[in-house]
Amino acid sequence: MKLDFFPEDIRPHIIPETREGLYYKCLGCSAEYPIEKLLYVCPECNQVLLIQDRNAASLQKIPGAVWQKIFDFRKMLKIPALKGIYRYHEFIGPCIPLESIVYLGEGHTPIVEANQTLQKKVGLSFFYKNDGQNPSASFKDRGMASAVSSIKYLIDQKLVSDVIAICASTGDTSAAASLYASYLDPLIKSAVLLPHKKVTSQQLSQPLGSGAHVFEIPGVFDDCMKIVEHLSTQYSVVLLNSKNAWRILGQESYSYEIAQDFEWDMKDKVVVVPIGNAGNISAVMNGFIKFYEANIIDCLPKIIGVQSEHADPVFQYYLEPDETKRKFVPVDTKPSVAQAAMIGNPVSMPRVVHIAKKYNSLAGRQQVFFVQVTEQSIMDWQLLANKNGHITCTQGGECLAGLVKALDKKIVNKKDTAILDATAHAIKFSEFQDLYFNSKIPKDYHIDSDPDKINLPSLILPDNPNMVPSQKKRLGEKDFQNFVKDISEKIAERLSLKVSL
Predict the structure, then answer these.
(1) 111-135+252-453: which CATH topology?
(2) What is d(CA 156, CA 225) in angstroms, rounded to the nearest whole number?
(3) Which residues pair with 26 in a beta bridge?
């Protein structure tokens, strides 16, 4: 759509202009650093960073209703850089010129309402936001588009060169990092560290296919993360885990899209997200805060963070009601089907504490909650969701189990509308479905297969074993017709079909 066709009042704002003002702020000692540096933790106190905007107040000069109009009309642009998460350029990366933005089709994933059967089973209205429909099939692409665009910006400014990007992963981060890095080959090369035999084969295939250097490490994700942190402090590499503050900026787009898809009305809304490394819930809260402070939305939705009992350090932290007595203690994880969230020492925990406190303060009441769910409930609810038209991963099952738990604990009520994060495509975690259907999930997962939920293929063979077609042996016309009739009758019997008149 040409600019001349846009309303005059928003025409000057449709194509965003770059501006300065972003900087790193340490959540420990409050030190500030320029974003032109490749920083992941504070050089002074080793605490995580957030990217802040010195000119955030200038965003309030444009009325909230005008911002809504800008974003709604910006949908019509054909400019690739503004099709993805950077539709919200002013709130994500205003210093990055459009020519430095990397767009691979991420963002603006569909919000799909649960059918009546599933809503009745759960007890309230809810939607899944299918972030598995991002390019690498997970929500990680949002943060990676931001992080890699920031690197491209530094490359274009000739501030860095010969970039080696590195990350630790439970699967999804490695897929996203290697995909986005490969798009900028040879400017960026990527390397990923994965916990040996704790990543699904589907996820392992992704960084291999993108040409990344893949290293499998004994132990769990937290062990891989420590190695990556050491490499990033001792060598000239770019860290692409959510410790990278640019990742948080990109994942804030999840909140912006929800607000826009619900016509900017966040009243009685509940956003449910799984917690692994805690970057996503940090970003979701921060995104809603930014839109609230800019008067784009007039209330903050409830946020519910969900953890499995096999990896629940954030939940355990918030069990203490007195915030002055809370103490974060990492946990040793146990095997979880919500594999992407199987993290016992989340690097973004300081961000969660900082942002949740501000979120509740702005809301004027507690609006951020945390619940714990069983592995059995994660698997059962995922299977039920997917039998009712969804394509959710085990983390999406974790969210649905969490919503049910929140309803039971009266954190939410039946008048609320919930939006659940299906963080990845169901195919990425289909191995757990296969194990469940074949009653082969290892005992340490603490999951029993319900016979009513098992669905396995049925092999239908003809009565005559000589009448079986194959690629090597084709049947004659008469034999083939008999084969078709025989198999059709057997299927009709299994399905209790009635003969058409």
Answers:
(1) Rossmann fold (3.40.50)
(2) 29
(3) 49
Beta bridge partners of 166: 191, 239
Give the chain's length: 501
pLDDT band per the 50, 70, 90 thresholds, residue 2:
confident
Residue 167 to residues 138, 207, 235, 343, 387: CA-CA distances in angstroms? 16, 11, 13, 15, 34
d(C-alpha 151, C-alpha 157), whole Å:
10
For 348-380, how does the pLDDT look when each residue is reduced to its tens digit (9 = 90+)?
Answer: 999 999 999 999 999 999 999 999 999 999 999
Return d(Cα 167, Cα 305) in angstroms, integer: 24
Residue 35 has a CB neighbour count (10 Å cut-off) of: 22
Task: Name the segment(s) of the chain with CATH classification 3.40.50.1100.
Answer: 3-107+139-247, 111-135+252-453
Over its C-alpha atoms, the chain yields an Rg (Å, rounded) of: 25
Enumerate residues 6+ apart whose C-beta is below 8 A from 62. 13, 70, 294
Side-chain-facing half-sphere of 324: CA atoms under 13 Å: 0
138-161 pLDDT, tens digit each: 999 999 999 999 999 999 999 998
Which letter does DSSP use for residue 328 in this model? -
Q: Are 344 and 336 in contact (CB under 8 A)?
A: no
Q: 420 - beta bridge partners?
A: 128, 272
pTM summary value: 0.94
CA angle at residue 51 from 142 to 155, to 5 degrees?
70
Please report, for residues 460, 481, 486, 488, 501, the alpha-carbon distance to residue 493 in angstroms, rounded to integers and kept in the order given. Answer: 12, 18, 11, 9, 17
CA-to-CA dists, residue 99 to 38, 144, 346, angstroms = 20, 17, 34
User: Is residue 392 within 8 Å of residue 357, measured between CB atoms?
Assistant: no
Cα gap 169→221, rounded to integer Å? 6
Distance, CA of 490 to CA of 481 (rounded, Å): 14
Cβ atoms within 10 Å, residue 367: 20
C-beta neighbour count of 495 within 10 angstroms: 8
- What's the whole-number mean pLDDT along residues 53-73? 96
Q: How far apart are CA 434 and CA 119, in angstroms?
A: 26
Structure tokens at 327: 């103490």
The CATH classification number of 3-107+139-247 equals 3.40.50.1100
Q: Is 463 helix (H, G, I), strand (E, B) or coil?
A: coil
